[in-house]
Design brief:
The complex is a heterodimer of chains A (about 400) and B (about 260). Chain A has about 400 residues and is an alpha+beta fold. Chain A has 13 helices and twelve strands. A six-stranded mixed β-barrel of chain A has the order 2-3-8-5-7-6. The two termini of chain A are about 35 Å apart. Residues about 1-25 of chain B have low confidence and may be disordered. Chain B has about 260 residues and is mainly β. The longest helix of chain B is centred in the N-terminal third of the chain and has 11 residues, at about 30-40. The two termini of chain B are about 30 Å apart. Classes of the chains: A alpha+beta (about 400), B mainly beta (about 260). Chains A and B meet through β3, β6 and β7 of A and β6 of B.
């Protein structure tokens, strides 16, 4: 029972951690990035006029290099945002435009790597990537020409012909329907933005939970240089995901309490039966002068021994399963497809995340369980009447 | 409000002449507002307009030539600045098409963009398309009847009828009593907050009719921003047919002259 309880809690915690990791990973890796740097005035309106460094812009390569140099940051890339129309034939769709560095962006987000067909757009060309749903609505395929219209920052209506280089399929319906990706220089030209003006530097952090620290460091660094920017981590940009992670964690504590709470009664019952069967033994020990506290200690140490055996058996069951489901998680996509949660795509893959903390907490809970479960049986054993018991009364 | 809108810039060209005798007669609030409404509608017309747009980030001026036929058809072609010259917008019944000379392509605006700004101005595409009569959608009451700044005016409040599918929660309008010229119109949202104000001025006879030759629209949430429309020359009853407002005409700069 103890072994099964240990196995259940650790594996279910691992599944929950896996689900949260999947949500955070997809919620930030697909497009957002784990850290974003932009003008202090950019959010929440996301005005196209609010570029880093104001109208004069900034030294983009230097800024990107500074962000990438943070010890927690794995990669950084500049971005320009816009909005407008993409039209082909008689079909026109409203779209969000994202100007990216085709070399750096794939190191930061997965959106450009989610290529369904075609190829990446070349820097310096009028090429773009469109989402699969947008491509369907516009009836375009790689190689087709589209008209792109975007309000420029000088008030004019930027418009030009672009060639669809590729079609991406992120799995996120909103992204696939509304986003178009351009080489950053092409979008800057369309929106009459000089190369020094960008809206954002996005960064990828290897461990998403290190993002708040990285954002704080970058904020301080860039502030010391007099740049009117703010660095924000995904925990600030996507607070709903943090709340979900915290909620999931609180549920795991409830699970731990329920599982080991049930185990207490089971173990106590077993030990009670065992001490009842051994009451002659306890009577003899008491008759020979053993103090009741000695009997209590004996039962308690037997319970701890039971705990050690339970932990060993539980760990023996849990470890291989954890390794197996971490590296080759059960794929339930044959049963149901992916779904979105908190704006992130979740694949129906039951991947478990290793949680050393939870393994330790579960072990502590296991020993607490056997300790508590041994209290009443030990008390009963210590109060066995020696003479009556040995006389069979 | 569906009727006093950017279409105003088109329909005001075809304003019916006002008879002062008619103005003396007893009129109900609905009749007065309807007359002002119809002032801004009419038959075929052609004119030139200067639109000056002032935003927090930029200021620009555009000259445009406009043709209209009733409330269903209009064609707007930008004459200057040079960068935008030739760009044209065609409204044909409930559809809006744009012609982009730089790429020599025509695109149809999707319904989802009807609320978007037209050419960066404070007018929306929706302002161009909506066409129902104001008295059909609003209950009208006279709020004030008397003199303001020495001028006899009426002030009306227009509240949407329960079944009306309209954008605004309330409209207020001031009209001069002597010639039925609108002075200003204020548009409020469902919460009763002012959204934008349109101010009329420079009332003059153009093309043989009294019209407000100057209009300024000011969004309430963007102080200091405005779009000003000033009429140049106007012609009325120029004999346009609906066939004039075609996609071919939209693309053909010379054909519409």
């Amino acid at each position: 029972m103890l072994a099964v309880g240990y196995f259940s809690v650790v594996v279910m915690w691992g599944w929950a951690e896996g689900l949260v990791a999947e949500m955070i990973g997809n919620g930030t890796d697909i497009l957002t990035g784990q850290v974003q740097v932009h003008s202090t005035e950019y959010n929440p309106d996301k005005s196209v006029y609010e570029t880093i460094g104001g109208r004069s812009g900034t030294d983009v390569p230097t800024l990107v290099a500074q962000v990438a140099a943070d010890p927690a940051v794995a990669a950084a890339a500049p971005r320009v945002y816009g909005g407008g129309l993409v039209s082909s034939g008689s079909a026109t769709v409203a779209a969000l435009f994202l100007g990216v560095d085709p070399e750096l962006e794939p190191q930061v987000s997965r959106i450009m790597r989610a290529l369904d067909r075609g190829r990446q757009p070349e820097p310096g060309t009028n090429e773009l990537l469109v989402g699969a749903e947008m491509a369907r609505v516009l009836s375009v395929e790689p190689g087709d020409e589209v008209v792109v219209v975007a309000p420029a920052v000088d008030g004019s209506m930027g418009n030009d012909l672009f060639v669809v280089a590729g079609v991406f399929r992120s799995g996120m319906a909103d992204l696939d329907r509304t986003f178009a990706l351009f080489p950053i220089d092409a979008l800057q030209m369309l929106m009459v933005l000089p190369p020094t003006r960008i809206h954002e530097v996005a960064a990828r952090v290897v461990d998403p939970w290190q993002a708040p620290g990285a954002a704080e460091r970058l904020d301080a660094l860039l502030d010391s240089q007099g740049l009117d920017v703010v660095a924000e981590s995904w925990t600030t940009l996507r607070p709903e995901m943090v709340e979900y992670a915290q909620l999931t964690q609180s549920f795991q504590w409830v699970l731990l309490a329920i599982v080991f709470g049930m185990a207490i009664f089971g173990v106590a019952n077993t030990m009670l039966l065992a001490t009842f069967e051994r009451r002659n033994e306890f009577a003899v020990l008491l008759a020979l002068g053993t103090k009741p506290s000695g009997i209590v200690r004996a039962v308690f140490f037997e319970a701890l021994g039971l705990g050690v055996l339970g932990l060993a058996a539980g760990a023996a069951m849990t470890l291989p399963i954890m390794v197996w489901w971490h590296n080759a998680p059960p794929d339930m996509s044959w049963l149901f497809g992916g779904f979105t949660m908190q704006g992130a795509l979740i694949r129906p893959v039951l991947r478990v995340e290793y949680s050393f903390t939870m393994a330790v907490y579960s072990a502590v809970a296991l020993f607490a369980t056997v300790s508590l479960a041994s209290v009443y049986p030990a008390f009963r054993a210590a109060r066995v009447p020696p003479a009556d018991t040995m006389a069979g009364r | 409000m569906k009727t006093i809108r950017f279409g105003l810039a088109l329909a005001v060209l075809t304003a019916p002449p006002m008879s002062s005798a008619a103005l003396q007669s007893q009129q109900t609030a609905e009749e007065i507002v309807d007359r002002v409404d119809r002032l801004l509608r009419g038959n075929s017309s052609r004119g030139t307009v200067t639109m000056e747009i002032v935003t927090e980030h930029w200021t620009r001026s555009m000259e445009m030539e406009i043709w209209s036929l009733g409330t269903d058809y209009s064609l707007i072609r930008i004459l200057s600045p040079r960068k935008d010259a030739g760009t044209a917008t065609l409204k044909s019944e409930n559809e809006i098409w744009n012609y982009l000379p730089r790429v020599d392509r025509t695109i149809k605006l999707p319904a989802s963009l009807m609320g978007a700004a037209w050419m960066g101005s404070h007018f929306t595409n929706d302002d161009l398309v909506k066409e129902s009569r104001i008295i059909e959608d609003y209950d009208i009451e006279i709020l004030f009847d008397g003199e303001r700044d020495g001028v006899a005016v009426w002030e009306f409040t227009l509240t949407p009828k329960p079944e009306a599918a309209v954008v605004w929660g309330r409209i207020e309008e001031r009209v001069r009593q002597d010639d039925l010229m609108p002075v200003w119109v204020r548009y409020y949202d469902d919460r009763g907050e002012l959204v934008r104000t349109m101010v009329f001025g420079e009332f003059q006879v153009m093309g043989g009719r009294l019209v407000p030759a100057h209009m300024v629209i000011e969004p309430a949430d963007k102080p200091g921003e405005s779009t000003t429309i000033t009429y140049g020359d106007l012609e009325f009853d120029v004999g346009l047919e609906s066939s004039f407002f075609s996609l071919q005409r939209l693309r053909d700069d010379r054909g519409s002259r």
